[in-house]
UniProtKB/TrEMBL annotation:
An example Gene Ontology biological process: phosphorelay signal transduction system
InterPro entries linked: CheY-like_superfamily, Ferritin-like, Ferritin-like_SF, Sig_transdc_resp-reg_receiver, ST_Response_Regulator
Keyword set includes Cytoplasm: no
Ranges where the Response regulatory domain occurs: 169-283
Modified residues (4-aspartylphosphate): D217
One Pfam family of this chain: Response_reg
Protein name, entry field: Response regulator receiver domain/Rubrerythrin
Key words of the record: Phosphoprotein
Species name: Desulfuromonas soudanensis
Entry superkingdom: Bacteria
Keyword flag Membrane: no
UniProt cross-references to CDD domains, sorted A to Z: REC_hyHK_CKI1_RcsC-like
Length: 290
């Protein structure tokens, strides 16, 4: 698997160079330049995540790959990326053409070997699942950006032909059975939803798999939402950016917690639309890939 992951990491690195170059070329368009700079940062983050996942895979002695890099795929993918970089470096690009090249770069990344590597590492556990989730979020971020551009329709339609790698996973931690069921039903439109009745159950879920969003009440039996949050940080130090507390009036030490902790919060009662929107915003929020 090492050779495969190294090759896929190299493809991610080349994509980062394309986005970095595009950001420099389009400095006159601040919105586009910032977007390309963000994409370059994400691609570099993906490369680091893949390398960390491969190290962890080796340490755990996971299964060896069933396929190897074939020269036809290598030439096809690397050829597309080289062509895109060369055209970018020649400097005679308008906005429409650079968006077309961006889609070509993404198609080059999502090749058969890349998809195989993603499927292979996805079954390895929480940290492996995070790698796949972050890479899939990158594609969805591009789609959202294109959807807001007046000339983004054509590249968006092309990009949407790429199959997703990951279904958004949401964890609802709520002790009220009726509210738990309602939240599960409401949020199922956004992805796969799992539930827990208290912080202890929620913590076991977090230890067992990666979640894009954790929606938690505060007052619960056995383990409160705040204690759950603090314990979850020991499992994943950056999990706080994926937390959303959904609670009523807070008092005493809970007030101190929310005053001193940078964590998202939605007050009860809230409309179904507000809940869904808050969860969706966190699911699509840009992450820092360490």
């Amino acid at each position: 698997m090492t050779d495969l992951v190294q090759w896929v990491s190299g493809v991610e690195e080349t994509a980062a160079k394309f986005y970095s170059g595009a950001s420099q070329r389009f400095q006159a368009d601040p919105v586009l330049a910032k977007f390309f700079a963000d994409m370059a940062e994400e691609e570099e983050g993906h490369r680091r995540l893949l390398q960390k996942a491969e190290i962890a895979r080796g340490e755990r002695g996971l299964a060896h790959p069933a396929v190897a890099i074939d020269q036809m795929t290598r030439r096809r993918v690397e050829g597309r990326l080289t062509t895109a970089l060369e055209e970018l470096n020649r400097g005679r690009l308008d906005r429409s053409r650079v968006l077309e090249l961006m889609v070509e770069v993404e198609f080059s990344e999502w090749n058969d070997l890349f998809l195989y590597v993603m499927e292979a590492i996805k079954g390895g556990g929480r940290e492996f699942q995070r790698t796949v989730a972050e890479i899939d979020r990158h594609k969805r971020g591009i789609e959202r950006f294109l959807a807001n551009l007046p000339d983004g329709g054509k590249p968006l339609a092309q990009l949407q032909r790429i199959s997703p790698l990951w279904q958004t996973r949401i964890l609802v931690v709520e002790d009220d059975p009726a509210a738990n069921r309602l939240l599960q039903q409401t949020l199922s439109r956004l992805g796969h939803v799992e539930t827990a009745a208290n912080g202890e159950e929620g913590l076991e879920k977090v230890k067992g798999g990666y979640f894009d969003v954790i929606l938690s009440d505060v007052k619960m039996p056995l383990m409160s939402g705040i204690e759950f949050y603090l314990q979850a940080l020991l499992v994943e130090p950056d999990i706080g950016e994926r937390f959303l507390f959904f609670t009523g009036i807070v008092q005493g030490e809970h007030q101190d917690f929310f005053r001193t902790t940078a964590v998202s919060r939605l007050n009860k009662p809230a409309s179904i639309l507000s809940i869904r929107r808050a969860v969706d915003d966190i699911a699509h929020r840009r992450r820092t890939c360490h």
